[in-house]
Specification:
Number of strands: 5
Structural class: alpha+beta
Order of helices and strands: EHEEEEHH
Radius of gyration: 22 Å
Largest sheet: 3 strands, mixed
Oligomer: single chain
Strand order of the largest sheet: 2-1-5
Strand content: 15-25%
Length: about 120
């Protein structure tokens, strides 16, 4: 599942009367439409690599100027994903650690800490 909440999308050739194309965004932030498209593509690509295709989700956009002139919008888009999986009963519990047996670390932890790991080993 992949979900994104962003400001007014202002799609080309798909004008929606409530969207305000005059909204300015800081130069260091991408426009909501660009983020929504790239987030969706990135989530699909990531899921497909692990055999978990995106089969559900939502996208919502919102931007408005209130009565007092205050702008309300998801100017920094919110993107989140989730998945549903199954696990065999045999993999629910761990075996007790055996002294002298190397432990396996998660790939993301090992990658983030590769400098510390490699610097702790000696020949």
């Amino acid at each position: 599942m992949s979900n994104v909440s962003a400001g007014d999308l202002c799609c080309v050739d798909y004008v929606l009367p409530w969207e305000d194309e005059s909204f300015a965004y800081p130069s260091n932030l991408a426009r909501p439409l660009s983020v929504a498209l790239e987030a969706s593509s990135g989530a699909s690509d990531y899921g497909n690599k692990f055999g978990e295709p995106i089969i559900a989700g939502f996208a919502r956009s919102f931007g408005m100027v209130g009565c007092g002139g205050e702008r309300r919008e998801w100017i920094k888009p919110i993107m989140f994903t989730g998945g549903i999986g199954a696990i065999s009963d045999a993999h629910v519990t761990k075996d007790a650690p055996t002294p002298g047996r190397p432990s396996c670390l998660g790939l993301s932890w090992a990658n983030e800490n590769k400098f510390q790991i490699s610097s702790n080993f000696t020949d």
